[in-house]
Amino acid sequence: MNVKDLKAVEILDRITDGFFALDKEWNFTYINKRAQELLFRSRKNLINKNIWKEFPEAVGLAFYDNYHLSASQQIPVTFDAYFPPLLTWFSVSTYPSEEGLTVFFQDVTMKKEQELKNEQHYQSLFAQHPDAVFSFDLEGRYLSVNKGMEELLGYTKEEFLTLSYTPLVKEDSLEETNHYFQKAVNGMTQHYETKAIHKDGHVIDVSVTNIPIVINKEIVGVYGIAKDITMQKQSEEMLIRSEKLSVVGELSASIAHEIRNPLTSLKGFLQLMQSSSENVSIYLEIMSDEISRIEEITGELLLLAKPQAHDFKKESIERITEHAMVLLHSQALINNVSLIPNFKKTSLVYCVANQIKQVIINIVKNAIESMPNGGDISIILAENEDKVQIIVKDQGCGIPKRFLSEVGLPFYTTKEKGTGLGMMTTLRIVETHGGTVHINSEEGKGTTVEIQLPIKGPA
Ligand code: ADP
Ligand code: MG
User: Fold this and answer.
1) Which residue's CA lies nearest to atom 12 of ligand 1?
2) Which distant-in-sequence residues (6+ apart) come within 8 Å of 428 by Cβ?
3) Does residue 364's CB lie within 6 angstroms of at least one atom of ligand 1?
4) Which segments of the chain belong to CATH 1.10.287.130?
5) In the chain, which residues fall in CATH 3.30.450.20?
6) Terminal CA-to-CA distance of the chain, rounded, Å?
7) Are strands 100-107 and 436-442 parallel, antiparallel or unpaired?
8) 349 and 457 Cβ atoms separated by less than 8 Å
């Protein structure tokens, strides 16, 4: 651009940006009107003078570095910088040319002050927030923490700045926490709960929010907000525990009731026997029946205890079913019932053999008891994808639709001598094996009970 051209000079004088041109020796060759106003210097005063001599304060500031960069690399450069002698923020663009460097600039002090004010607004949101607020780099190292964070974990700000979150998370929660942090690094805000370790060693339950920090469309770090929820967690746990207790309470009330009945009758017969001289063998028979009943009830309830992980082994369902059938053989014979096996080849199932055997006994026993006049019971084993099926089909009395939902409730029985515990334990055991129980029944026709057990065991 030839700045000596009059037309051009007029235009340059009218533009609202400050503008000046420098030659290769950093001397002013042109200054427009606005530049004179912005720099508080006249044209005459500056023309042919060296910029670094006239504005020595600019040496060592961004102006000096950027002008040299623009001139030596022959590239335009744009930057904002503060010029202390004039108490002014300038937004500057430089353009290299054959003759030297041309510079456009604006006073952006007002805008900058507003920006700084906004930043201070955010800063105080950060600093004064009652929750713990902090920021990380992409590797999870602390870049800043507020007072709330110092209070939450007991470290000082200086200590945090030498740390990453890794040693501050309880070991068994770390993998999960890493997972959430990584998602935040990938741009997704995360809410989660984890366990943090206070400087003095005690563990705190915290609810955490991780938010990606995005600057110029690029994720440069992660913000965190954390809240101490230890108290809340404790009261939640207490609630769960008290719920469990109330279930146990209800169950033990019914069990006590069930066991007290036979005990009462046992006691009565004993008293009768003490006071009578006649033959007591008839009482003995009833007493023995009642004792068996107590035995049966307590036996069923013992099976309710949850098996330990080490009780699970790879077992053949075919072998287990055969065992159960041997035990049921005499009862079937007495009732004129035939047990008809139909075993397809099945994989070994990860299960507790004794419990599965009890399940089969319970179901086949019910089937036998549903056929007082005898009949056939099919016992089918099959496999379907990743599950083994145990199907027991009877030709008995069936279950009326309206009672289907009762089957499996503790002590629900329609039998004079029933315990009403068989189906409950069955459901419980299958559930702890990760399987399902389906009952299909038609009144007067028969019942089919289908059990599906995942081959891999409970998930
Ligand atoms: P119990 O056998 O001691 O009565 P269960 O829990 O084993 O207790 O069974 C509960 C009730 O479910 C039985 O009393 C019966 O009414 C019904 N039931 C279970 N299985 C069958 C079946 N195969 N056919 C008909 N009714 C059944
Ligand atoms: Mg039963």
Assistant:
1) 407
2) 303, 304
3) no
4) 235-305
5) 3-112, 129-228
6) 77
7) unpaired
8) yes
Residue 172, phi then psi, degrees to nearest 5: -75, -5
Report the helix count and the strand count for the chain, using DSSP H and E.
14, 17
Residue of 254, 335, 361, 366 to test ligand 1 pocket, by largest number of atoms within 8 Å of CB? 366
Question: Which CATH number does the domain 3-112 belong to among 3.30.450.20, 3.30.420.40, 3.10.310.10, 3.30.40.10?
Answer: 3.30.450.20
Which residue type, as a one-letter code, is found at position 428?
R
Identity (one letter) of the amino acid at 194?
T
Residue 359 Cβ < 6 Å to ligand 1:
no
**Per the CATH hierarchy, to which homologous superfamily does domain 313-454 belong?**
Histidine kinase-like ATPase, C-terminal domain (3.30.565.10)
Q: What is the DSSP string of 122-135?
A: HHHHHHH-SSEEEE
> What are the per-10-residue average pLDDT scores of the chain (459 residues)?
60 80 95 93 94 94 95 94 93 92 94 88 86 94 95 95 95 95 95 95 95 92 94 82 66 73 82 78 81 79 71 94 89 94 96 92 95 96 96 96 90 87 90 94 96 94
The pair of structure tokens assigned to 455 is 């081959």
DSSP tag of 164: B
pLDDT tens string 408-428? 888 889 998 888 889 988 998
CATH 2.60.40.10 describes domain 129-228: no
For residue 28, give every residue at least 6 positions away whose Cβ sits within 8 Å of its Cβ, in sequence order, or none. 20, 21, 22, 46, 47, 48, 49, 51, 54
Domain covering 235-305 assigned CATH 1.10.10.10 in the classification: no
Distance CA 458, CA 352 (A): 11
Q: Are 413 and 254 in contact (CB under 8 A)?
A: no
Domain with CATH 3.30.565.10 in the chain: 313-454
Contact 132, 194 (CB under 8 A): no
State the distance from the centre of ligand 2 to the C-alpha of 299, rounded, in angstroms.
13
pLDDT in tens, 161-170: 999 999 999 9
Rg (CA), the chain: 43
* Token duo for residue 418: 């029933």
Residue nearest to atom 11 of ligand 1 (CA): 413
Q: Which residues contact 35 (CB under 8 A, 6 or more apart)?
A: 18, 19, 20, 105
**SS3 at position 185:** helix
Helix (H) or strand (E) holding 248: helix 230-275
The two structure tokens encoding residue 353: 């053999």
Distance (angstroms) between ligand 2 centre and the Cα of 329 equals 16
